[in-house]
Recover the amino acids of this structure.
């Protein structure tokens, strides 16, 4: 199918996408091979993934369920992010894509619009019951089609140095207004200490904060896309953080740098808005602070709210290049719902499972070593995960994220208007979509 035709199919509302691309997918894969019951012999599948230790997890399949079903999976390690998306699309154009791919949730619309992912709604079985609605929605793009099985998620939380909060007489903020007042109170007590920093080098953090506030960056309107990156919800988030940076209540330095690590390790930054995977980062960034941190729910915009955003997470998808869609979907469902598989993923890959049943079992019955004193860490995390707001991704997330880093990076450094940076992000994203031939509602 020509690329322009695929793009048009993706534009004509989410429901039409499920029908059109689902039909294209079924036509691309031979029905005799797709139907597991009609297979006449063994099946070999290739899986592109970046998760550490995935080969050990897949080995459980190959020696167990896979052996019984004569389905063997081979892992091919790949880079993550945009690099992998580009490689998948390049392979698909040549008709040489793998059977399965690991894909971040925000990459799914791009892959679907290029007809690279198969609709596995008929093969997903009862997998949907294993996941929270907000998580499952990310793999359906709001349709009846299913383009992947959720693997891991990154519900956002608030991390703080409990010893230093006590030392400075601070209370853990439950609202964003209280968060701002806590930052200001700390500055008065310890001018050389920051509550946290606004960082522009990881777009996912800002996207998750906007998601929590109710933002919907990409939606469909009739036969066109509607881009709302500078909507009221996101503008509220941008103005909030921009105001704190401008007045000097928080730092404006990027994360993941030696300076940021030192600030965390020495107590010059005493809190971090992050996600469930933060303990792993803190272990290497601030090793001397083990046992001194605690985790709490993300502050809310209103005392009546109970919602969080998502920062990170990925899924397992079946490609339209696979000649064994049913077998590939069976493996994808096993990988992300089977207890032994999920325990192995947690142990070998350090993931936090999307499956709700796995979030309180196996590797998640005891807290992370770095938070050994917080016995309810994963119990609290599971409760927070259930409050994750639905997301709304579009076909050029990479462009929006790049624009964020450039525009907000400059605004944070110069302590200038975050609202103008947000408008730039909106304009860049819309311009790129039009350039690619997508219909965009003004």
């Amino acid at each position: 199918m020509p690329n322009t035709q695929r793009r048009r199919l993706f534009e004509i509302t989410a429901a039409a996408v499920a029908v059109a691309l689902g039909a294209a997918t079924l036509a691309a894969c031979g029905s005799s091979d797709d139907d597991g019951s009609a297979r006449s012999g063994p099946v070999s599948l290739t899986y592109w993934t970046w998760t550490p230790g995935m080969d050990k997890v897949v080995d459980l399949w190959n020696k167990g369920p896979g052996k019984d079903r004569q389905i063997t999976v081979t892992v091919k390690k790949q880079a993550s992010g945009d690099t992998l998306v580009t490689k998948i699309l390049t392979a698909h154009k040549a008709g040489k894509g793998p059977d399965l791919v690991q894909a971040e949730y925000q990459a799914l619309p791009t892959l679907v619009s290029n007809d690279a992912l198969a609709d596995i709604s008929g093969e997903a079985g009862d997998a949907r019951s294993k996941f929270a609605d907000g998580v499952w929605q990310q793999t359906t793009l709001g349709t009846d089609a299913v383009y992947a099985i959720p693997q891991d998620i990154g519900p956002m939380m608030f991390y703080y140095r409990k010893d230093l909060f006590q030392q400075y007489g601070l209370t853990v903020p439950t609202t964003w207004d209280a968060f701002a007042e806590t930052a200001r109170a700390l500055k008065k007590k310890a001018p050389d200490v920051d509550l946290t920093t606004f960082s522009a080098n990881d777009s996912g953090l800002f996207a998750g904060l906007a998601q929590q506030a109710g933002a919907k960056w990409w939606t469909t309107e009739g036969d066109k896309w509607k881009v709302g990156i500078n909507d009221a919800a996101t503008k509220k988030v941008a103005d909030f953080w921009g105001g704190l940076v401008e007045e000097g209540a928080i730092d404006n330095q990027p994360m993941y740098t030696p300076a940021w690590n030192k600030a965390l390790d020495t107590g010059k930054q005493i809190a971090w808005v992050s996600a469930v995977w933060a303990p792993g980062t803190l272990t290497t960034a601030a090793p001397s602070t083990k046992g001194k941190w605690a985790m709490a729910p993300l502050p809310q915009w209103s005392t009546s709210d109970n919602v969080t955003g998502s920062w990170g997470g990925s899924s397992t998808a079946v490609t339209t290049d696979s000649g064994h869609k049913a077998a590939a979907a069976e493996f994808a469902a096993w990988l992300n719902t089977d207890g032994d598989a999920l325990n192995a993923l947690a142990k070998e890959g350090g993931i936090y499972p999307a499956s709700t049943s796995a979030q309180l079992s196996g590797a998640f019955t005891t807290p992370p070593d770095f938070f050994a004193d917080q016995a309810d860490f994963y119990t609290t995390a599971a409760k927070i995960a259930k409050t994750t707001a639905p997301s709304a991704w579009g076909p050029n997330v990479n462009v929006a994220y790049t624009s964020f880093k450039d525009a907000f990076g400059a605004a944070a450094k110069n302590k200038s208007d975050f609202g103008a940076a947000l408008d730039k992000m909106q304009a860049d994203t819309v311009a790129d979509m039009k350039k690619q031939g997508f219909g965009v509602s003004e």
